[in-house]
Amino acid sequence: MTPVAVFNDTSFTDHYGCHAVMSALGRGLRARGMEPAYHWPVARDWRDAVPDVRALGVRALVVNGEGSIHHSETRERARWLAELPELARDLGVPAVLLNASISDLDAATLEKLGGYDLIYVRETQSRAYLVRHGIEAAFAPDLSFDTPAPVHAAPRRGLLVTDSVMKEARRDLRRLARREGGRFVRMIERPSPWRKLVARLRPGAPVPQGATLADAGKAESFAARLAGARLVVTGRFHSVTLALKTRTPVLAAESNTAKISALMTDVFGATGRVIGAAELASPNFAARVQEGAAFDTAEGEALDLYLIDARDRIAAMFDDVARLSGGTGR
């Protein structure tokens, strides 16, 4: 197996969607002869990892972009990830950026981002943004679409509401669930007292080399809960992706960037299922929720095509990484 280092491992957040992404990333790499030999967590400067990565002799740096690369003037995390090709050049290995939503970057960050040998973004809007700035990129849907779809034979029942990264939307979504008799689910599990203690004593510490906190079982269990619902209302990008993966009707409030609108446009060609923050408390929206917002025929056909395309594009993305990094391919 060809050893690679994985950066921006979001499974450390214990977020269901991030468990789905990081599990899929590991599966895709290993299926093509690449072994993630080192994981570096989200929200920590990669420069602290240099001695370990150098000692391992990895053959590539693989960066999971997700929603980390935006508003670089105020978010140092975006700048850190754009600068990772510097380490790759120093090690003499390729740097690949996968599964990213990208927007609102300053000129210096864009220039550094152009140092990646391969970039895959998860919405066509992100690709268009990079192309406008002279950076080549390919498109493959979010890795959570690689989560195995649960088999759900029972009739769909009830409303399932998840939270949002936005404070006001999170409050209104919780109120919606209470008002409409729905179940409210947090996307990030509450950490155990032991986990809190470790985080306090060793803030940001990486797990041992070669390890990750990715738990495919948590992702699949959450997907199964979505599959049992009549309707999902959410403010989380990965609640949308997993609802779509399970063909569960979904309505969504936008997140901290336009990534949900971009995803809906890629799938349906429109943003009719994206709701404004002010709509969450409106009587008209309550009526729409009560009706169930089922997919119409055109939406169902568009979703079927998107899911087939997602499978093929994700596979092609990993094939490209293998060709660049010395993996074996499928």
UniProtKB/TrEMBL annotation:
<dbReference type="InterPro" id="IPR007345">
    <property type="entry name" value="Polysacch_pyruvyl_Trfase"/>
</dbReference>
<protein>
    <submittedName>
        <fullName>Polysaccharide pyruvyl transferase</fullName>
    </submittedName>
</protein>
<keyword id="KW-0808">Transferase</keyword>
<dbReference type="Pfam" id="PF04230">
    <property type="entry name" value="PS_pyruv_trans"/>
</dbReference>
<feature type="domain" description="Polysaccharide pyruvyl transferase">
    <location>
        <begin position="15"/>
        <end position="252"/>
    </location>
</feature>
<dbReference type="GO" id="GO:0016740">
    <property type="term" value="F:transferase activity"/>
</dbReference>
